Amino acid sequence: MATDQNKFQAIISHCKEYGFVFPSSEIYDGLSAVYDYGQYGAQLKKNIRDYWWKSMTQMHENIVGIDAAIFMHPTTWKASGHVDNFSDPMIDNKDSKKRYRVDHLIEAHAETLPAAEGEALLAQMDNLLKENDFAGLKKLIEDKKIKCTVSGTSNWTDVRQFNLMFSTQLGSVTDEASEIYLRPETAQGIFVNFLNVQKTGRMKIPFGIAQTGKAFRNEIVARQFIFRMREFEQMEMQFFIRPGTQKEWYAYWKEERLKWHLSLGVSPEKYRYHDHVKLAHYADAAVDIEYEFPIGFKEVEGIHSRTDFDLKSHQEYSRKKIQYFDTEINQNYVPYVIETSIGLDRMFLLTICNAYEEEDLSKDGKEDSRVVMRFPAKLAPIQLAVFPLTKKDGLPEIARELMDKCKSSFFCFYEEKDAIGKRYRRQDAIGTPFCVTIDHQTKEDNTVTIRYRDSMEQERVPLDKVKEIVLNKINE
Ligand code: GAP
């Protein structure tokens, strides 16, 4: 059985073994902090994305979704502040040449300390970061005798800033004018389309624009599996509001987003808010929603009060008026923005960590165990597995008929090899909530055995009720 300390490693192995996540280009020994999603991972990720999309757009009459391009005009990133400000303080170890993000290095050290001491260290770090006191940060690292994990020494360079954006060339001519960036956040695609959407959709403030898509960051310390990647996916929503109402809308979205997380059945104790001390260049308030991963409480989602920083800045750089005429107060203004920003890959990791369980089933001196992924039925990559007990006597034909009836409504999986017990365990490991077995009795009375993943209980139900049972659970 995996302990808390090695549970994370067990989860990573499970993800690989059961087709959820593979290291990218693994046959060439992989690419650091880049991952591929396998057959079950891609489906789980899509289900999470769809659930977010539906709750943001379909369930809110005043939020619409867009899909902006990854490449954007380079001035976008000047206006957004990313060219000048999107950097992190880094420090290099002179012996190993390994580069660390200063906050990650100190955070990792804090985790090794007794709780109170660790918290005091983090508070000291937060203050220094807020002041941009790089000399103070270096001194803190030296005073605490924080060591490089590779060289084991404390031989550090000064702390310096590094920009996290990837750049590439547009077209075949390599000059400064053709340099463009891979977007480090999806949000700017929303800001530059504010007027397009507002006008064509006749949107009235308050309203939101949502989108999901890839973002890229040259993370220096990219570790902890898919928690911090160089290529990842975000699900963001910008909510445009009247200036002066930002406090109430910030409080509203802070609460609303936590409710969304809890709607997936995760225990509330696994979540907490973390208010930002050091605010990003665009924000006047910011909070993280953190989840308790096996590696500790970590950020999954950020809610930011972004003021009118982005729209104003795009107005200035583009020299195009980006304003809204509010008919209720007869006034033109640049709207304020509350942003909700969640990493899809982090939400995927949360879903995996929350679902993963090694269950001891030993009984009467006979050792037994299973790994079960307790995904909510609506997110499970496979929702129903259909098993004919044997490959003959007309049982596969009945099973195939059930598959045909169900597969347009949800994901089904058909298998006729191996003993039923083995087939159940394989479905437990990928988190299939329902397995149905067609046996000889089915031919007599049109009933089947449905087996529930979580309780492992089995019951006899009419064959023609199976689709309804599964659909009810998925739509809960
Ligand atoms: N538009 C605001 C923004 O991008 P952020 O806090 O930098 O804010 C938002 O990122 C979310 O994106 C984070 O809460 C996290 O879930 C996810 N995220 C950020 N960097 C990531 C990375 N390197 N790998 C995976 N997810 C990341």
From TrEMBL:
<feature type="binding site">
    <location>
        <begin position="339"/>
        <end position="343"/>
    </location>
    <ligand>
        <name>substrate</name>
    </ligand>
</feature>
<feature type="binding site">
    <location>
        <begin position="227"/>
        <end position="232"/>
    </location>
    <ligand>
        <name>ATP</name>
    </ligand>
</feature>
<dbReference type="Pfam" id="PF00587">
    <property type="entry name" value="tRNA-synt_2b"/>
</dbReference>
<dbReference type="InterPro" id="IPR022961">
    <property type="entry name" value="Gly_tRNA_ligase_bac"/>
</dbReference>
<feature type="binding site">
    <location>
        <begin position="217"/>
        <end position="219"/>
    </location>
    <ligand>
        <name>ATP</name>
    </ligand>
</feature>
<keyword id="KW-0436">Ligase</keyword>
<dbReference type="GO" id="GO:0015966">
    <property type="term" value="P:diadenosine tetraphosphate biosynthetic process"/>
</dbReference>
<dbReference type="GO" id="GO:0070062">
    <property type="term" value="C:extracellular exosome"/>
</dbReference>
<dbReference type="GO" id="GO:0006426">
    <property type="term" value="P:glycyl-tRNA aminoacylation"/>
</dbReference>
<dbReference type="GO" id="GO:0005524">
    <property type="term" value="F:ATP binding"/>
</dbReference>
<feature type="binding site">
    <location>
        <begin position="343"/>
        <end position="346"/>
    </location>
    <ligand>
        <name>ATP</name>
    </ligand>
</feature>
<feature type="domain" description="Aminoacyl-transfer RNA synthetases class-II family profile">
    <location>
        <begin position="165"/>
        <end position="376"/>
    </location>
</feature>
<comment type="function">
    <text>Catalyzes the attachment of glycine to tRNA(Gly).</text>
</comment>
<dbReference type="InterPro" id="IPR002314">
    <property type="entry name" value="aa-tRNA-synt_IIb"/>
</dbReference>
<dbReference type="InterPro" id="IPR027031">
    <property type="entry name" value="Gly-tRNA_synthase/POLG2"/>
</dbReference>
<dbReference type="InterPro" id="IPR036621">
    <property type="entry name" value="Anticodon-bd_dom_sf"/>
</dbReference>
<keyword id="KW-0963">Cytoplasm</keyword>
<keyword id="KW-0547">Nucleotide-binding</keyword>
<dbReference type="GO" id="GO:1990742">
    <property type="term" value="C:microvesicle"/>
</dbReference>
<feature type="binding site">
    <location>
        <begin position="299"/>
        <end position="300"/>
    </location>
    <ligand>
        <name>ATP</name>
    </ligand>
</feature>
<keyword id="KW-0030">Aminoacyl-tRNA synthetase</keyword>
<dbReference type="InterPro" id="IPR033731">
    <property type="entry name" value="GlyRS-like_core"/>
</dbReference>
<dbReference type="InterPro" id="IPR045864">
    <property type="entry name" value="aa-tRNA-synth_II/BPL/LPL"/>
</dbReference>
<feature type="binding site">
    <location>
        <position position="101"/>
    </location>
    <ligand>
        <name>substrate</name>
    </ligand>
</feature>
<comment type="subunit">
    <text>Homodimer.</text>
</comment>
<comment type="similarity">
    <text>Belongs to the class-II aminoacyl-tRNA synthetase family.</text>
</comment>
<keyword id="KW-0648">Protein biosynthesis</keyword>
<protein>
    <recommendedName>
        <fullName>Glycine--tRNA ligase</fullName>
        <ecNumber>6.1.1.14</ecNumber>
    </recommendedName>
</protein>
<feature type="binding site">
    <location>
        <begin position="232"/>
        <end position="236"/>
    </location>
    <ligand>
        <name>substrate</name>
    </ligand>
</feature>
<dbReference type="GO" id="GO:0004820">
    <property type="term" value="F:glycine-tRNA ligase activity"/>
</dbReference>
<dbReference type="InterPro" id="IPR002315">
    <property type="entry name" value="tRNA-synt_gly"/>
</dbReference>
<keyword id="KW-0067">ATP-binding</keyword>
<dbReference type="Pfam" id="PF03129">
    <property type="entry name" value="HGTP_anticodon"/>
</dbReference>
<dbReference type="GO" id="GO:0005737">
    <property type="term" value="C:cytoplasm"/>
</dbReference>
<dbReference type="InterPro" id="IPR004154">
    <property type="entry name" value="Anticodon-bd"/>
</dbReference>
<feature type="binding site">
    <location>
        <position position="185"/>
    </location>
    <ligand>
        <name>substrate</name>
    </ligand>
</feature>
<dbReference type="InterPro" id="IPR006195">
    <property type="entry name" value="aa-tRNA-synth_II"/>
</dbReference>
<dbReference type="GO" id="GO:0004081">
    <property type="term" value="F:bis(5'-nucleosyl)-tetraphosphatase (asymmetrical) activity"/>
</dbReference>
